[in-house]
Amino acid sequence: MFIDRAEIYVRGGNGGHGCMSFRRERFIPKGGPDGGDGGRGGSVYLVADESVATLLDMAGHHHWVAENGKPGKGKNMTGRSGKDLVIRLPPGTLVYDRDNGRLLKDLDAPGKKVRIVRGGRGGRGNAHFATARHQAPRYCQPGEEGQERRLRLELKLIADVGLVGLPNAGKSTLLSRLTKARPKIADYPFTTLEPQLGIVEMPGYQRFVMADIPGLIEGAHEGHGLGDDFLRHIERTRMILHLIDVHPLPGQARPIEAYRIIRNELRKYSEALAAKPELIVANKIDLAENNDAVDQLRDELEALGIAAEEVIAISGVTGSGLERLGYRLWEMVEAAKARERVAASALAVKSKDDPFRGILPDGEEPDEADFEELLSTNEESSEAAQGDFEDNETADDLTGGAS
């Protein structure tokens, strides 16, 4: 079962209570206080794990609570700290605070780790409160409660190529021919009811990931068919493969109309998604002895101002044209990666001393409100770091806003 949304409750462990104790030993009538501190409560971490594919575990397990710290004991013995709780999520999971809707973290790469709530401090034992004037304190501190949060999790699959097209365009067949994925294939619409991922293996150890989503129909943005909800799974893709059936059945949309329908649904869902590089592929050429339908599609696309010289004709059933398609997809994916590297380099050379980098658009001068926002952001960061019991260099800390 493919689950891509879930809501969970997470809480850090409570700190252990401090101990009130006095040293009791033979020949030492007034040994003084020796109550130990309570242990720290466990924290909760979220980790992007490649071995996890969906949010299924979250759908049946809504409460995640780390272990409490143990109370302190006599002889200045500190209680054991609670074990941290690690929740493994599929890469591509967006973590939101359910109460205010704020995006807390995007686990967009395997291995990313974030501490989402922190365990409570352990209480101090009475040995801490002994002074020259008050040598026998009879009180200790209780442990702090752990932070808690209610989270909303949304999964957006991570792939290089996203397959789009009308139902029965042949997307699942194409995915099964290019990859080792085995999606359900049948001769009726909406055979694919959930997104499918496959890895395309090319010569020379070259590979890329392809994602197939359920077919779209006209009005999908209004909830028709299966709706456009699954489009979020190809928002992260580097390019789109638009598959068109050039020999539709009677009553189905003509190839150029099918293209218009899908492009319209993509634009209504997200302009950024519609602007991604696109490769148009004409499928089911095995149903005719010539390529007249493909040539007609190219002519109609050029009439719309779309460069159609790269429309690739294939047959998912016979395998015709698949080798050329695989190499072209690889070239486009590598070109997209190169553009990303250039953009990252340009961002890296931007002045690191600019305190408003990432807050204001490029070229915009900060005003008084912007300075106040920057100041509040710094204060929140300081509060989040204050009282941190561990030096964890591998995980981000998002516990500053937790209750």
What percentage of the residues does DSSP assign to strands (E)?
A: 15-25%
Order of helices and strands: EEHEEEEEEEHEEEHHEHEHHE
Write the CATH architecture name of the largest domain: 3-Layer(aba) Sandwich
How many strands in all? 15
Report the mean per-residue pLDDT as an integer. 81
The largest beta-sheet arranges its strands as 10-11-9-12-13-14
Reported for the largest beta sheet, the result is: 6 strands, mixed
Structural class: alpha/beta
Structure description:
By secondary structure, the chain is α/β, with parallel strands linked by helices. It folds into 2 domains: 155 residues, Spo0b-associated Gtp-binding Protein, Chain: A; 186 residues, 3-Layer(aba) Sandwich (Rossmann fold). The chain is built from 7 helices and 15 strands. A hairpin with a 5-residue loop joins β5 and β6. The longest helix is centred in the last third of the chain and has 27 residues. The radius of gyration is 29 Å and the shape is elongated. The relative contact order is 0.12.
Please render the helix and strand layout as text.
Layout: E1 5-11, E2 44-48, H1 56-60, E3 63-65, E4 85-89, E5 93-97, E6 103-107, E7 113-117, E8 148-155, E9 161-164, H2 171-178, E10 196-202, E11 206-212, E12 239-245, H3 255-269, H4 271-274, E13 278-283, H5 292-303, E14 312-313, H6 322-348, H7 368-385, E15 396-397
Parallel strand pairs: 1-3, 2-4, 7-15, 9-11, 9-12, 12-13, 13-14
Antiparallel strand pairs: 1-8, 2-7, 5-6, 5-8, 10-11
Task: Summarize the structure in short.
With 403 residues, the protein is of the alpha/beta class. The protein contains seven helices and 15 strands. The protein folds into two domains: 1-155, GTP1/OBG domain (Spo0b-associated Gtp-binding Protein, Chain: A), CATH 2.70.210; 161-346, P-loop containing nucleotide triphosphate hydrolases (Rossmann fold, 3-Layer(aba) Sandwich), CATH 3.40.50.
